[in-house]
Design a protein that fits this description.
It contains no helices and 15 strands. It is mainly beta. It has two domains: 41 residues, no CATH class; 92 residues, Jelly Rolls (Sandwich), CATH 2.60.120. The strands form five sheets. Strands 8-15-10-13 form a four-stranded antiparallel beta sheet, with no helix packed on it.
């Protein structure tokens, strides 16, 4: 369904189905699709989640500028050896949470693997610390 900006307003062409029915949509001033909910139209992000790669051996790397309410959906861990280091995430000023302990023979292959998170920050933006020999791609919605 094409969406275009016309004089500061976003206009969407309704999707027409074979039986002639259409689906009307609304978008906000940023172009985010709005969906109907119990309390009216709620904006959702149409561009999908953000992602950021954090290389090995980094300390307290922020994901975006960070804010309360930022979410971490998942982490794709990319080990470089069979003995990669740990990966820790930190919510604002809270103490860190280890999402992968790493260590000797902690992985049996060098295939990437996913850790599902589904976390929403409570105290501030997310920061990440990675050990040696492991890169991580984080996916979520945080303040750019």
């Amino acid at each position: 369904m094409p969406v275009e900006q016309i004089a500061g307003q976003y206009q969407a062409t309704p999707q027409a189905f074979a039986d002639g029915q259409t689906i009307a949509v609304q978008v906000d001033e940023q172009g985010n699709l709005k969906i109907a909910g119990s309390s009216g139209m709620t904006p959702i992000q149409t561009g999908g989640p953000l992602y950021e790669r954090v290389p090995e051996s980094q300390t307290a790397v922020p994901l975006g500028t960070g804010a309360v309410g930022d979410t971490l959906t998942r982490a794709v861990l990319i080990p470089k050896t069979l003995n990669p280091g740990a990966v820790t995430i930190i919510d604002g000023s809270d103490s860190g949470m280890i999402i992968f302990t790493g260590g000797t023979a902690s992985v049996s292959t060098l295939h990437s693997f996913v850790v599902e998170l589904g976390f929403k920050s409570v105290t501030g933006g997310w920061t990440v610390t990675t050990g040696a020999n492991i890169d991580v791609m984080f996916v979520g919605n945080w303040t750019p």
